[in-house]
Amino acid sequence: MSNINYRSVRPLIDSAAPHLFIETYGCQMNVNDSEVVLSILQKAGFTLCQKPEDAALVLINTCAIRDNAEQRILGRLEYYRQQKKRNPHLLVGVLGCMAERLKDKLLENPVVDLVAGPDAYRDLPRLVGILGASGEKQINTLLSHEETYGDISPVRMDPNGVSAFISIMRGCNNVCSYCVVPYTRGAERSRDPESILREARELFEAGYREVVLLGQNVDSYSYGETGFARLLAKVAEISPLLRVRFSTSHPKDMKDEVLLTMAAYPNICKHIHLPVQSGSNAMLEKMRRRHTREWYLERVARIREIMPDCSITTDVIAGFCGETEADFEDTLDLFRQVKFDAAFMFQYSERPGTLAARHYPDDVPPEVKTERLERIIALQNKLSAESNRRDVGRCFEVLAESFSKRSQNDLMGRTSQNKACVFPAAGHHIGEYVTVLVKDSTPATLLCEVVE
Ligand code: 5AD
Ligand code: SF4
Question: How far, in Å, from the CA of 315 to the mean position of ligand 1?
Answer without folding.
Answer: 8
